[in-house]
Structure formats: structure tokens, C-alpha cells
Amino acid sequence: xxxxxxxxTEIKRKDRVSPKAGAIRRLDRLRSVLRDxxxxxxxxxxxxxxxxxxxxxxxYAR
Length: 62
Hints:
The chain is an all-alpha fold and 62 residues long. The protein has a domain at 19-61. The chain contains 3 helices and no strands. It has helices at residues 6-17, 19-34, 39-61. Helix 1 (6-17) runs antiparallel to helix 2 (19-34). The longest helix is centred in the C-terminal third of the chain and has 23 residues, at 39-61.
């Protein structure tokens, strides 16, 4: 499996294992994309992801 089909196939495979495994694979993909960006943009993106994950955690922790 190569090229453009790798990530979608890998994410679907991990989603079948568990939602957590799928989410971890999605973050791996994000990390690989942000690695090539300007560090300032990458840091801002990670802050936004962190804030979104925190709001999801807060919503379901109640």
C-alpha cells in the first residue's frame, strides 16, 4: 500500500479496532503533515487541536 491510499486505509483499519486507535492514527497523520509546515503554523495548529480535544473531553467527562 503506497501513496494516497495509505492513510485512509490505515485509519479505516484502526477504526475497526477501536475509536481510540483510529484517533491516534489521525493524529499521526496530522503530525506528518504539520512536520513540513512553518513551526509557527504547526504550533498554532497543535494548540487548536489541543483546545478541541479538551472541549470534547470536558463534554463527555460530565
